[in-house]
Write a structure and sequence with these properties.
By secondary structure, the chain is an alpha+beta fold. The chain contains four helices and six strands; from the N terminus they run ααββββββαα.
């Protein structure tokens, strides 16, 4: 749905409400109708961008004209104009493969798109940042089991190695 379609739908809803229940239709509602009509009549004039919001990174859309004025972003955050970001904040990289590797043919396909599956049976995606796994720790019962396996007398290093081995088993 385009922005124009959304505005037309909102205008229709407000006008229906005005017609249905004029007694409960307030000044703010009338101002909303006027603003929507003005926006629909505007010829898609470019909106001035006043930097970027330090809260959410969205474009700033209005600015008060004095040194300590406020700027408002498209999401409604208000912030001091002096705190405006001049460039959009760094966006997190999407977790998409940068290449594909065939384990059978020992070759790498340097493209983000997956190779044709008809040509090769098995492709493994390659990432710039490997996917992070959730760490799995040991339960109290597992600690107790390891302790009992050690016997009545043991070196603390042996117990530490046993814990380390068990954690590696659970997290690989």
């Amino acid at each position: 749905m385009t922005q124009t379609e959304v505005l037309r739908l909102a205008l229709e809803a407000l006008e229906n409400w005005l017609e249905f229940d004029p007694e409960n239709f307030g000044e703010v509602d009338k101002k909303a109708i006027t603003a929507i009509k003005a926006a629909l009549e505007a010829k898609d004039e470019p909106v001035a961008v006043y930097g970027y919001c330090p809260v959410c990174g969205a474009k700033g859309t209005s600015r008060e004209r004095h040194p300590d004025g406020n700027t408002t972003c498209v999401n409604g955050h208000k912030y001091k104009s002096r705190d405006t970001l001049s460039t959009p904040p760094h966006q997190e990289a999407k977790d998409e493969p940068v290449a594909w590797m065939s384990e059978e043919d020992d070759c790498i396909f340097l493209d983000k798109d997956k190779p044709n599956p008809m040509d090769y049976d098995f492709w493994t995606p390659l990432y710039t940042t490997p996917p992070q796994r959730t760490w799995v720790g040991l339960t109290d019962a597992e600690y107790k089991e390891l302790h009992l396996q050690m016997g009545p007398v043991y070196y603390y290093q042996d117990y530490g190695h046993a814990i380390e081995t068990k954690l590696k088993e659970k997290n690989t």
